[in-house]
């Protein structure tokens, strides 16, 4: 009987086609250790050291012998007692595991690496790369993932992980040398390895070069910026020669593998269209529509005082109507009032910039590390201008070009708040004259001043006069005049720092009977300094002001304040805070009200709570000092449970018949939102989108990773339906690393599938095919029939997009067989409808009617109203193409009635668009316009990008039919 083993990922074994249950953790770990040294004896003392470390039990050797015996019986159940095992042999003071040449993935991996080495030495880098791609595909996570962490830290397993990392680097080098065609296939694995080894400069350099070579130049530069910042923060070093050389080569546009490939095929040579065709085309389409005038400035501070000299200085920097872009850089320490001054000044100038005001908080110094990337910021600006999602190019360069095209010839005020460094800002600078950019940052952005001509304005702390005016505006002139000495002491104790003065004055306002002298005395008794200010210019003590307000909180409110520091996003809901605290929402609401009154948190909109970064950092310090690691871990898990189960509930409401992952029960004390309908579900997801994405990244990087990949899988449909494809790529890329680290094959399968589909959306066909092939392999490995079925459906959808309709039908055939075996009748019916749609694309309208009618019958039998509505819509579309206009309208009315009943607003609008098309074809322009206006009203209410397409139809109701949708 053939015995097979796997150690490149979870430890597994098969006897024939039957997977073996490997027993308790120590026994599984022992097998893993033997597999790493396959064919060589492992001494008993080495086994004991690996399994128990420095403190083995007295019975350790006996336990090892028992595990060896159990493994022999597992591998050879018919082995007579006392007989020598064929596979597990004793000798040389230890045990040796023998396997056949094709019986262990590790041996096959090493053999393929040798083949790659021979091919490379023979001058065939393409063949060498193919061997390495095949070798790397055998890895399903870190070596021996799933065994105890203290055992996996043994050098034997670290060495295997090192072999994987070396193979990734070799594959990248050879793919760059091989020329077109292989870069995208290596890039998938290279991205994952780089995410797991963020400080490996050689690996990051290869990623940068490969990104540039495959047409992702903007992302390559973004990776360099991120790695440089991380090296400085975590190691205190600058990039080494290899990373610097890669950066210079990208800046010089030295690599163009993807461009060469597209030239050879006659396609565009710039898929990201950096300043080129993609942005120009999108801009041309937008110029024919309605341009939104954004007004994004946050509310200014009502009691703003002082800063007269600074305001007079920046006033002189305003650009003339036809002058060059002015960039003003407002710098200074945290809490000095940079944002307050920038927003106040922006409001003063708003009427001079009639084409709009843009604002974004780049979160450059967020305590959780959830920094907003330039790509996210540009996407938010394009959203603010009302750019439909389908008209936004895929790459950062093209998106930046479109953004600059939109502001060209316009007077726009742009506030970039909390920037981390120059590279954080550079892609967001417009190229048009007449615009004003206001940047705030704690860092001195020399590159922005030297390279972009920015005017620096460094804020110091308030003068005595301005600080006194600051307190007077909040406490009243009479109270300030009555105790001038106490006022001077308060100002000195707060170090003239606006944020500290605001916290102190808030307490004084709430307690009007307190003498200011008592407040000054208490501040003097609590002298300290904030660690967050270390390394910056000398500043006064802010922690004493924070701690003084904190110490006056009730214990329950103080606990909530500390736990809020764990939250990854810019703001959060009452239910999220309640879950963090493990309390009822009613109880938590009262505690949050106390915190808002103390100015320790803010409530920018009803029911949403935020916290200044300094105060969040202070809360994190307190949590580490006052709460146990177990308490903080449980709070973090409750928070993640809230978001995971909330997203799962929303997804279930939006698509009730869609197969989805099963979750384990949430912890006690978690509040899961109750979402009554699709509108509520969509609003919950949209409101929490940035937090959900930050939670995925935080858990993937610093947590267990389990919540991260499950959350990414749950959000897949929502992000796809709403055109958030770049966010999808980022979320799923973080998630795939987490699933691999866990050795969770199911998680890896789900995330690879999502990555494959979104790369297809972006027309990155090489990466799409690689991810979907990997997903299909993993789902097959764990016997997940439904997972295989949906992967086949994705492959079919992307085949249709490439007009490979026969291939799509073949995928659907496989998917139907898989769903039937899994007992998913609704899935089979959906496939029938999709097959019918494929027939429509092929012009086989009669075949489409047959398939869609079968889908309709099956959905009706199973009670799937969403599927039934989709089938009616497809039937109508087929009848429309057969010029059976009355039959088409009848089908559409059935679909419309169902979509309204289940409150699916987007698909209701989609069906109304189809109704309008049929009325137009039947020469009923009035009815067509009426249907399109109804659709437009729905889509505009949703803020959906397809609203622009409906506006185009209303401009010419008798225009020819558009081509069938893909």
Please state the structural category: mainly alpha
Can you list the strand order of the major beta sheet?
A: 8-9-10-7-11
Would you report the number of β strands? 14
Q: Helical element count?
A: 45
Oligomeric category: single chain
| Radius of gyration, whole Å | 31 Å
Overall form: globular
Distance between the termini: 50 Å
Largest sheet: 5 strands, parallel
Measured by DSSP, the beta-strand proportion falls in 5-15%
**Helix fraction by DSSP (H/I, runs of at least 4):** 55-70%
Mean pLDDT across all residues, rounded? 85
Model regions low in confidence, pLDDT < 50 over at least 5 residues:
253-278, 284-290, 527-541
What's this, in brief?
The chain is mainly alpha-helical.
Structure, described:
This protein is mainly alpha-helical. Helices cover 62% and strands 6% of the residues. The strands form 4 sheets. Strands 8-9-10-7-11 form a 5-stranded parallel β-sheet, sandwiched between helices. Strands 1-2-3 form a 3-stranded antiparallel β-sheet, with no helix packed on it. Strands 4-6-5 form a 3-stranded antiparallel β-sheet. Helix 18 (422-425) links the parallel strand 9 and strand 10 (436-441). The longest helix has 26 residues, at 629-654. 50% of the residues are buried. The model is unreliable at 253-278, 284-290 and 527-541 (pLDDT under 50).
Topology:
Layout: E1 3-6, E2 12-15, E3 18-19, H1 25-36, E4 42-43, H2 44-52, H3 60-75, E5 88-91, E6 94-97, H4 105-121, H5 125-136, H6 149-152, H7 155-178, H8 183-196, H9 201-213, H10 217-235, H11 241-251, H12 257-265, H13 277-287, H14 308-315, E7 326-331, H15 338-349, E8 357-361, H16 374-384, H17 396-407, E9 413-417, H18 422-425, E10 436-441, H19 446-452, E11 455-458, H20 464-475, H21 477-482, H22 484-493, H23 498-510, H24 516-525, H25 543-551, H26 555-564, E12 571-573, H27 574-581, H28 585-597, E13 602-605, E14 608-610, H29 613-626, H30 629-654, H31 678-687, H32 689-702, H33 706-721, H34 725-742, H35 745-761, H36 765-781, H37 785-801, H38 805-822, H39 825-841, H40 845-862, H41 865-881, H42 885-901, H43 905-921, H44 925-942, H45 947-955
Parallel strand pairs: 7-10, 7-11, 8-9, 9-10
Antiparallel strand pairs: 1-2, 2-3, 4-6, 5-6, 12-14, 13-14
Helix pairs in contact: 1-3, 4-5, 5-7, 7-8, 7-9, 8-9, 8-34, 8-36, 9-10, 9-11, 10-11, 13-17, 16-17, 20-23, 22-24, 23-25, 26-28, 26-29, 27-28, 27-30, 30-31, 30-33, 32-33, 32-34, 33-34, 33-35, 34-35, 35-36, 35-37, 36-37, 37-38, 38-39, 39-40, 39-41, 40-41, 41-42, 41-43, 42-43, 43-44, 44-45
């Amino acid at each position: 009987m053939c015995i097979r083993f796997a150690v490149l990922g979870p430890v597994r074994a098969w006897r024939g086609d039957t997977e073996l249950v490997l027993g308790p953790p120590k026994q599984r770990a022992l097998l893993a250790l033997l597999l790493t040294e396959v064919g060589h004896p492992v001494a008993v003392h080495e086994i004991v050291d690996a399994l128990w470390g420095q403190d083995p039990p007295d019975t350790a050797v006996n336990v090892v012998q028992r595990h060896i015996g159990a493994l022999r019986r597992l591998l050879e159940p018919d082995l007579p007692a006392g007989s020598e095992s064929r596979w597990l042999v004793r000798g040389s003071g230890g045990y040796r595991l023998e396997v056949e040449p094709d019986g262990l993935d590790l041996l096959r991996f090493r053999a393929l690496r040798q083949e790659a080495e021979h091919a490379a030495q023979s001058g065939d880098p393409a063949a060498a790369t193919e061997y390495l791609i095949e070798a790397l595909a055998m890895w399903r996570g870190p070596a021996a993932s799933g065994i105890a962490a203290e055992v996996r830290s043994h050098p034997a397993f670290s060495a295997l992980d090192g072999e994987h990392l070396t193979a990734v680097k070799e594959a990248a080098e050879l793919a760059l040398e091989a020329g077109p065609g292989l870069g995208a296939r290596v890039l998938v694995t290279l991205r994952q390895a780089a995410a797991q080894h963020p400080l490996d400069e050689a690996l990051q350099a290869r990623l940068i070069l490969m990104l540039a070579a495959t047409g992702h130049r903007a992302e390559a530069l973004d990776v360099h910026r991120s790695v440089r910042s991380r090296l400085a923060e975590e190691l205190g070093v600058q990039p080494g020669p290899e990373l610097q050389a890669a950066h210079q080569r990208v800046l010089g546009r030295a690599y163009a593998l993807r461009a060469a490939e597209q030239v050879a095929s006659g396609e565009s040579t710039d898929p990201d269209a950096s300043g080129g065709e993609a942005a120009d085309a999108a801009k041309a389409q937008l110029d024919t529509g309605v341009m939104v005038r954004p007004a994004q400035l946050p509310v200014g501070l009502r009691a703003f005082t002082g800063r007269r000299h600074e305001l007079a200085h920046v006033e002189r920097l305003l650009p003339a109507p036809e002058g060059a872009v002015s960039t003003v850089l407002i710098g200074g320490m945290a809490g000095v009032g940079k944002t307050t001054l920038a927003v106040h000044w922006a409001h003063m100038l708003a009427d001079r910039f009639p084409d709009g005001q843009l604002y974004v908080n780049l979160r450059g110094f967020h305590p959780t590390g959830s920094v907003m990337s330039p790509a996210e910021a540009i996407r938010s600006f394009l959203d603010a201008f009302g750019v439909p999602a389908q008209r936004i190019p895929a790459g950062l360069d093209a998106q930046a070009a479109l953004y600059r095209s939109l502001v060209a010839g316009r007077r726009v005020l742009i506030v970039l708040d909390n920037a981390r460094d120059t590279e954080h800002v550079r892609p967001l600078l417009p190229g048009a004259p007449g615009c004003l950019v206001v940047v705030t940052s704690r860092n001195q952005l020399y590159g922005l001043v030297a390279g972009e001509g920015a005017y620096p304005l460094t804020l110091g702390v308030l003068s005595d006069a301005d600080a006194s005016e600051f307190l007077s505006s909040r406490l009243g002139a009479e109270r300030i005049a009555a105790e001038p000495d106490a006022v001077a002491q308060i100002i000195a104790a707060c170090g003239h720092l606006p944020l500290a003065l605001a916290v102190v004055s808030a307490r004084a306002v709430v307690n009007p009977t307190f003498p200011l002298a008592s407040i000054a005395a208490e501040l003097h008794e609590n002298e300290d300094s904030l660690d967050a200010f270390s390394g910056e210019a000398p500043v006064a003590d802010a922690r004493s002001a924070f701690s003084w307000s904190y110490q006056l909180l009730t214990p329950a409110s103080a606990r909530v304040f500390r736990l809020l520091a764990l939250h990854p996003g810019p703001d959060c809901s009452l239910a999220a805070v309640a879950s963090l605290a493990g309390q009822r929402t009613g109880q938590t609401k009262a505690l949050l009200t106390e915190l808002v009154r103390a100015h320790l948190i803010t409530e920018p909109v009803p029911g949403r709570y935020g916290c200044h970064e300094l105060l969040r950092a202070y809360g994190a310090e307190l949590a580490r000092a006052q709460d146990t690691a177990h308490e903080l871990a449980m709070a973090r898990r409750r928070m993640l449970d809230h978001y995971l189960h909330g997203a799962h509930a929303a997804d279930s409401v939006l698509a009730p018949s869609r197969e989805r992952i099963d979750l384990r029960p949430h912890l006690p004390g978690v509040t899961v939102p109750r979402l009554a309908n699709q509108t509520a579900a969509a609003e919950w997801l949209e409101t929490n989108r940035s937090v959900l994405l930050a939670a995925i990244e935080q858990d993937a990087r610093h947590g267990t990773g389990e919540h991260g990949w499950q959350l990414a899988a749950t959000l897949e449909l929502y992000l796809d339906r709403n055109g958030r494809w770049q966010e999808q790529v980022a979320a799923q890329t973080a998630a795939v690393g987490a699933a691999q680290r866990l050795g969770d094959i199911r998680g890896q399968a789900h995330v690879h599938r999502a990555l494959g589909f979104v790369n297809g959306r972006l027309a990155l066909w090489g990466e799409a095919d690689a991810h979907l092939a990997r997903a299909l392999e993993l789902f097959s490995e764990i016997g997940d029939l439904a997972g295989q079925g949906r992967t086949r459906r994705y492959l079919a959808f992307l085949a249709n997009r490439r007009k490979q309709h026969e291939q799509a039908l073949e995928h659907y055939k496989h998917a139907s067989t898989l769903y039937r075996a899994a007992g998913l009748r609704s899935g089979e019916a959906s496939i029938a409808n999709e097959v019918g749609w494929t027939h429509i694309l092929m012009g086989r309208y009669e075949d489409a009617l047959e398939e869609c009618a079968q889908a309709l019958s099956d959905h009706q039998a199973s009670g799937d109203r969403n599927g039934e509505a989709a089938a009616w819509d497809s039937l109508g579309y087929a009848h429309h193409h057969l010029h059976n206009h009355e039959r088409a309208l009848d089908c559409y009315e059935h679909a419309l009635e169902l979509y309204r009943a289940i409150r699916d607003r987007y698909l209701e609008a989609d069906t109304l668009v189809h109704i309008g098309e049929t009325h137009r074809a039947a020469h009923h322009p009035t009815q067509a316009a009426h249907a399109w206006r109804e659709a437009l009203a729905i889509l505009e209410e949703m803020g959906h990008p397809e609203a622009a397409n409906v506006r185009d139809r209303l401009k010419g109701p008798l225009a020819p039919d558009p081509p069938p949708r893909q």
